[in-house]
Prior knowledge:
By secondary structure, chain A is α/β, with parallel strands linked by helices. In chain A, about 40% of the residues lie in helices and about 20% in strands. Chain A has twelve helices and eleven strands. In chain A, the strands form two sheets. Chain A has a seven-stranded mixed sheet with strand order 2-1-3-4-6-5-9, sandwiched between helices. The mean pLDDT of chain A is about 95. Chain B has a five-stranded parallel sheet with strand order 1-2-3-7-6, sandwiched between helices. Chain B has a two-stranded antiparallel ribbon with strand order 4-5. Classes of the chains: A alpha/beta, B alpha/beta. The structure holds thiamine diphosphate (TPP) and magnesium ion.
Amino acid sequence: MAVTVADTIRELTRSHIAETNGMTLGQCLTAVGWVQNTVPAQAEGNHELPMTDVAGAGIAVGAALMGRRPVFVLRFQSLLWLNVSPIVNYAAKSMEIWGVPCPVLVRAIGVEGGGTGPIHSNCNHSMVMSMPGLPVCAPMTPGEYRRIWDHWMSHDDPVLVSEHRRSYLSDRELPDMVKDGAVATIYALSAARFTAEEAVARLEAEGIRVNLVHVLWLKPFDRSPSVLAPLLASGRGLVVDCAYECASAARSIAYELMEATGKPVRALGLEERSPGASRHLENGTPSPERIAAAIRALIAV
Amino acid sequence: MTEPRSPDFNLIDDLHHQAGRDFSLELFRRLCLSRAFDTRVRQAQIDKDVQTLIYLSVGQESIAAGVSMHHRGAWVLPQHRCHSTYLSFDGRPERLVDELLGLPSGCCAGMGGSPPAADFERRIIGHDGLIGDHVPIAVGVAMAKPEDKVVCFFGDGAAEEDYVLAALGTAASWKSRVLFVCEDNDLSVLTPTRDRRSWNLAEVARAFGLDAVDIADDPWLVAHHAATLTLPALINVRTCRVLWHNGTGQDGPPEWDRFAITKARMAELGLAAEAEAIETECTTQVEDLWQSRLQTRSGN
Ligand SMILES: Cc1ncc(C[n+]2csc(CCOP(=O)(O)OP(=O)(O)O)c2C)c(N)n1
Ligand SMILES: [Mg+2]
């Protein structure tokens, strides 16, 4: 059976609990399918938190200080707004202030559509990126999840993992697509990587050849030559994300790319309005159509 | 003392006999309207007329019905499971139907769906979807409007939110005119209270200095305490959520069936025929409303 992203998270957690004294903390972990089947169904090592959306993160931070490498689960990224203070103000600063590592893995789950409405439908990973000491990643494949996990286990930093429900049942790896004669390069983040793939295929059918570079670490952003080369060759870039644009991961990465290459790079994210519960009012990950339109506009300039 | 998870927990004997006939009929009507409404919403989701996430009050209707008997006119802050509160406090049913159907004429213009139902003109203040977020807001409303009463409903899970406890303490310190009502169905999603905490909300509220009781969801009992506690106060009401956390499913029979018990009490009062007529009226009224709104939608 193919191993999905959800399977990968669950099995990494299971062996972390069994072999490295790890633990999981979160609300309603056991409820409704063990968080989309990403939490191992076992009592040992799983800690049901009360519904305390500020104190909960603090408790996870305490466990991290004691070396337990806790996995702290937030069922919706909207809950970051409440839980974020102990993460950015304590865990992320602990090394710099006291020299004490505080490696908590924050699993913040992105959700959208399906009636989730104005609060829970969103990714909010951008909000933490302006604070130091907290690497931020958005793995969408089993292999990427293992990589970020290994990174976390072998470093002292806390890590914010911006997950997306859209990836959980996927078992595919997502290699970059770099082509000769491409006229633009898409740098895609989180769930926008799936819609960007479709956009690239559509544009290709129209005769517009576009590169696709998958971004795993939102912060620090990898500016290595292999990441910059497709942009340098194609001459234009578009960073696509499933979060809002203003003060966002997408704009920050677009800026880094422009600074590193001198090439024009735009950002595309959610429309600047709250998502509604009704289907016609949803505001989710940029669709293949929106991405393709943004590319057409970019190359028309 | 009876078990907390029982339909007679801290019941006052014969309370329903002491209530006037008109009071009992109106109380029962409010309970029935909510029951009929959410039963119809459930059907509408099964029929795919309602596609958004729904949080139904089925089984818990007696709480809002009981509190509303003495507090209509207060500012009301429902929790996410809000339909019974909205209706008992006179929120306009057609606006809630439209919201669930995603129409611009809905009480949140289709933005919110089920959880944030609001009718500001009727002093019903919407919930944002973050559990317990509205409890400090209730204290703020009371602070800004000392001449008005405020009623704030929340769940046993929300009770654990840090800011809910801080809000209870602040209300006690400021002697805010807030009645806090915990709709305690013993579940947060599917996690029972015993797996989440060891403390008792009414005791914590008392420690803060609030007048507080812990009772079963008998509607006369709820109404009695809602009328007699000195504000700020808290009522923790033990109740049963009949359906799933959201959606239409059901796991098994509830621990007790408050609706059936209430009908039996109406019969004890010699009001069986009247109760039956009210139930039929509410069902018809709700069905007529849905039909007309569904027609409006298909005409759109
Ligand atoms: C601040 C916050 N934390 C977590 C959630 C996820 N959540 C939605 S409803 C719910 C259960 C709440 O239980 P309770 O307050 O007892 O209300 P009930 O659903 O039982 O009526 C949870 C945990 C949320 N919406 N907001
Ligand atoms: Mg509950």
